[in-house]
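This part of the workshop introduces the protein records we will be handling. The question running through the whole workshop is how a given chain folds. To make this concrete, we reproduce a full record directly below:
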Amino acid sequence: MAGKKVAKKRSTKPSTPEPAAKKKTAKHAEVVLLAGGNPQIAKGDGDLPVQAYIAAMPEWKRDIGRRIDTLITGTLPEIRKAVKWNSPFYGTDRAWVLSFHCFNEYVKVAFLNGAKLKPLPPGESKDKNTRYLDIREEDAIDETRFADWLRQAAALPEWNP
């Protein structure tokens, strides 16, 4: 009798993964776009999660993300990178200096201690230390000014919000 139960169990087991497992695997591989088309990327340290975020940016925003990343790494080759709160972050060994985030009509670059930069990045923040630069599809990035802001931000002393 025990032999019949074992045989019965073997014959009813599916030979392929259950649909729920397939969905989980497929869902895990897909990138979810949050409000404004901002990619939902798992947090992580280093270049790989940042590159995954940039690759998942929709349409023209991806080109902006690549340009920003290239400008940052070209200006500050020793920069550290991470993805936190669904945004790439760039910093020195002392502090995070910049992040960016996708919105419907623009990519918002946050200079985290931007109130100390000269000239000030144009966008104000509720946080007195942060300044923003919004980059729209048709905007040209002033690479000289952007690089200058990066160098200034990297030279600032430790900053803890």
In short: The longest helix spans residues 59-75. The two ends are 70 Å apart (CA to CA). The helical segments are 2-12, 19-29, 47-56, 59-75, 143-155.
